[in-house]
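Reproducibility note. Readers wishing to regenerate the assembly model reported in the main text can use the exact inputs given here. Chain order matters: entities are listed in the order in which they were concatenated for prediction.
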Amino acid sequence: MSWRRFLRRRWWDDERAREIAAYLENETADNIARGMPPAEAAAAARRKFGNPGLVREEIYRMNTIGWLESTWQDLRYGARALRLSPGFAAVAIVSLALGIGANTAIFQLLDAVRLRSLPVQNPQELAEVKIAGGNHGMGMNQQYGELTRPIWQLIHDKQQAFSGTFAWSVNRRYVGQGSEMRNFRGLWVSGDFFRVLGVRPWRGRLLLPDDAGACPVTHAVASYSYWQSQMAGHEPGPGTKLVVNNDLVEIVGVTPPEFFGMSVGDNFDIALPLCQPNEELRRDIFEVSVMGRLKPRSSLARASAEMETLSPGIFEATVSPGRDTKWSETYKHFRLAAYPAAQGVSWLRESYDSSLWLLLGITGLVLLIACANLANLMLARASARERELAVRLALGASRARLVRQLLAESALLAAAGTALGVALAHSLSGVLVWAISTEGSSVNLNTDMDWRVLLFAAGVAILTCAAFGVLPALRSSQTQPAAAMKAGGRGTTAGRERFSLQRLMVVTQISVSLVLLVAALLFVRSFRNLMTFDPGMRENGITTAFLGYWQSNLPPQRWAEFQRELLDEVRATPGVLDAATTTNTPLTGGSWGHGVRVGQVEGNSKFTWVSPAYFNTMGISVVRGRGFNQNDTAASTRVAVVNQTFARKLLGGADPIGQTLRTGQEPNYPSTVYEIVGVIPDTQYDDLRGETPPMTFAPATQFPAQGPWTVMMIHSNAPSAAISATVKRGLAAGHPGVIMEFGDFQKQIRGQLTPERLMAMLSGFFGLLAAVLAMVGLYGVISFLVARRRNEIGIRLALGAERGQVVAMVMREAGRLLLIGVLTGAALSLLAGRGARSLLFGLKPYDPLTLGAAALLLAIIAAAASFLPARRASKLDPMAALRDE
Amino acid sequence: MGKKPTQTDILQGTLDMLILQILAPGAAHGHAIAHAIERRSEEVLLVEHGSLYPALHRLEDRGWIASFWGTSENNRKARYYRLTATGRRQLSAEMSRWERVVRAVNQVLRPAER
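Running the prediction on these inputs yields the following structure tokens for the assembly.
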């Protein structure tokens, strides 16, 4: 096979044609010279030469590459055939584009969240050091925080396996002053962070080990997007300063546009050095993620082994003081290990992993239905072309060649559908990213095409082409030329066997669309359950307010008092029905707990310190004893209100009133004895899902760890935005230094339901799409069957069959297909339901009501789809039908 | 791609050698080559002159001969072929091989002469 020859085959053909012409001229001239008359001379020359066409063909065959030439021919022929039926081509390409586009979009998201490596140098060399099995929620845990800073120091000093290590953490802080203050997404990094990652500055310089000295920080770098949007692309350097957390910080550089930090899906605004505070570092705050770059000849296993060896020393040296012995013992037995970190970390993985895989499955099934439709269309087309194929077979075309020809058509459709689908996928994945972004947290994902996405799209294209092309092509090549030509393309009755393939396709479509409808109904109902679920407290009409007053220069002993003043002002604001402070916002992910001892029972309880009006504000009734009041002060007896789960689990059902509980000792939280004075009913704690944990409430006045900030829950009948504005205006006038952020409590809760909303939306959409596709498929097949049985129906009508009987006959046919489809679909749904169990709320995957509703919906659709062709059949004029024969 | 054996296939090696042999003294065009073969082989080998051209194409493709457009003796345009260096080597190799074969066949056919 020579490409050079192949590419010049036409040139050579011309050349040889001229040469042959030259031969003929020469020979003719010679003949004339020998005395022949010119006409005879030319004829003799041609006789001598033989057939020029055959000679040229032989030479052409030597030059060409057989399969390529014939494939090209097939493709051209296929394109011509498709151009002749543009309607069919358009339907096929659009439905394929939708199916492939949806699949590719979901895969793009999966790729971005799960498979893509960080945009840094040699990401595959990165590893994260974590506690094997996690820290069991010990101490305080920040997002992505796996280790404490003292542990990080020791790893940094002792490790040998990595060529460099770094620590990082993320946290929102405030930039600017007074009313100009905004919160920003901070990325705190150790000195070596940018060097080890190999990130090059976009402008200026990035942070160096020298920047990470004693607090407060003086240098920082901005992310590209922050630099563009908030700093107007101002050149970094000594003149460019921001007030970050009250400190004047110089922006020394800008990171490149593609660098978003270490957590996929997030972006950061400003990166600051992890500085060394004046006081000793806390040993119980798990706030940093520690990563390293493996040495060229090291491996993950070797790094893990080294970490394992270092572990006893490290944990022995960093055990937190002021904790009980059990805590310390557990802590000392922790072991470090290294894990791959090329893909960074991401909260999206936990939230969306199963949803995305499930969605990929759903879109795959939708594509399958679309393929079945196309296969049916192809079959119908093929039987319309039966005579053409028969003639070609009779003329000596091989069956393999016919199959190739028909496959070429499918390949063209698949290729066009894929091209359109990939283009579509790009916008679709953009919409998906937008759909998983919530008010508070925008999701930043790189969904550009990469080789994985392209490979995926190509794979899907080949599979679809095979799925809808191969069977019809094989089937049509089985045509018996003699029979096909004799039958004249119109049998008197439809052969059972002939259409079994089409029936099979329709049954598949019905069963798969039933599965998708069931899934859609399950997710929609599950989402509805969550939306209407009563968490045991008021969520509508509640506005949350975060108030920070660390800029007001108040001494710490005034903080609690100032908080009460602020609360009184808020409660006096017109439109505010009630308001209370709390140390923890419920239902939005926040959690705070302590170990407790009640009598002989040891356990854990969630702890929240609230102002007296809290239960009233949140619509929680006190069922036994009392709530808090003005008499519960910092000086009075420590009192607590517990929930019913607390009473059941820690008190064994005994009357809680008058009992005491003792908290375990923790830094800033001395061991304290509380007297239980009231009981509230169970409410959800940090999440709408999940079991209610034992909960303890205590008066805000007795909170041992008061900081210069507070969270208020404000109850009002006015819209959240309006009451926020009123409260903000009121407070800002009297207290210019107070930072205020407001939120709509219900929206915040619903923000947590984004994955469920996404599932409900998409599965609902795909379920309906599947039903529509199945309807089109059934309609097509029934119409086709009716057309095929035209003569038979005509004879029946002529013999006196009632029109109703004809309708019933056709509908029976459709009904049989529907029944088989629904039965297999139901069985499949039950199987598939297991995979969705963990994603459902308040529903079992084998919910008979859902299954029944889906089957009913499908039955209605099927009846509608088959009634039209059935009616058409019954309206047949028997004379016309018979005359056609 | 199954090709049916044809006369040219059977005699292909021989035809190739003949063409090379004819071109050995100097360049010639297709028409002249055809007539030369016809003369030399006493009209046994070449049934139709057209079958020469695929052979020429093949030889040129292998680089044994090269071609150019020229003007024939009676002032007509014609494609001329000449032997290349590799073609010349190929010719002598084929000739000696041919002679070996002929000798061997002769020995089989007329063992008495030994």
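We highlight two features of this model. The first helix of chain A runs from residue 3 to 7. Chain A touches chain B at residues 5, 12, 15-16, 18-20, 22-23, 25-27, 29, 48-52, 54-55, 58-59, 61-62, 66 (CB under 8 Å).
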